[in-house]
Task: structure prediction
Amino acid sequence: MINLRILLSVQLLFALAMVQFTVAQITIDSISLRNNDLIYNPAVDRIFASVPSDAGAALGNRLAIIDPSTGDMSSTGFIGSEPTPLAVSDDGSFVYVGLRGSASVSRYDVQSNTVGLEIGLGTSGFLGNFFAEDIAVLPGSPNSIAVSRRNVGFSPRHEGVVVFDGAVQRASQTSGHTGANRIEFGDDASTLFGLNNETTEFGFRTMTVDADGATVDSVVRGAGGGFGTDIEFAGGRIYMTNGTVLDAATGARLGRYSASGSVAVDVAAEQVYFLGSTSVRIFDLTTFVPIGEIAFGFSTSGSSLTRVGENGLAFRDSSNVYLIDSPEFIGTPPVEAEIILGDVNEDGTVDFSDIPSFIVVLAVGGYQAEADCDPNGVVDFSDISAFIEILRGN
Result:
């Protein structure tokens, strides 16, 4: 019988020499484009970016339309004066565009490639015109939107949340001064969440939306937001750009990721992404633990991070749109694989071909469940005897 202990030690040098390090495939492309915001429309697999007038005659005051798989770009016709915040209906049929030049919201019809509606946001004799700070389309109702309005030149800037069906405003609206600067619908059109991000009240608001309009049901003050904090709703949670996570139903704080910046969430893949100045950091959705990082190799003051397609992300700064693709890092759900003790090379069987892999794990001092043959949560020399017994059994 072969002495497996001697065989293990003899193969150590050979095994270490055969270690290979694989670099994950990551593609980062940049598209030069003056822009104010971007959004992804999964129904047509296209990114839409709002382009200001100073981009020039060819693209200014239009929506740029980008194919994320190729980077090819086209544009709409004139969309309105100084397009900025964007929102897309859940069926992908409309893109709504807040206009900073005309104090209104325009609606772009994706299928017909036309601007079919312009929605006035109101005015005040003292405060002047109202503009869209944030827009949210009612789930299941592509013709209806909620708008968080703002003034320009006064503080506080908030001018209430209003609901429109087409261009017709519903009667009830929330109060101005202190309210929901940023808004996100929950799973249906009856519940709207909002965050005050301009005064120290920093209240997280739950609003009811019905045929009459929008009303505030509850406010959780000091819920974890801050000045300029934005929010995303996903899977019953509110994700803030400062890393804080709330239970959307109660406003209770569930935890915090050790990151800040524009945030995107992939519930199916159990991943949360935060955009920093030099990288995107990836976290486990449930445990709040960092699980990866995609470095850019450059620095940017980016925003509007969004998941794109199967394995992509997109974000923007004032002069560029960036596309990231990484099948190994982005959108890949955790696999609940069966652990076979001793199958260190993970080929489905335990045999002599597992010896080099076992030695490498042991020598490097890392952890692999298949090499933890005792098992006690640690790979160390006590696993050698257990590994030998498993080999003998096979």
User: Anything to note?
Assistant: Helices lie at 4-10, 12-17, 355-364, 382-393. The domain at 27-325 is CATH 2.130.10.10 (Methylamine Dehydrogenase; Chain H). Residues 1-23 have pLDDT under 50 and may be disordered. The longest strand covers residues 158-165.
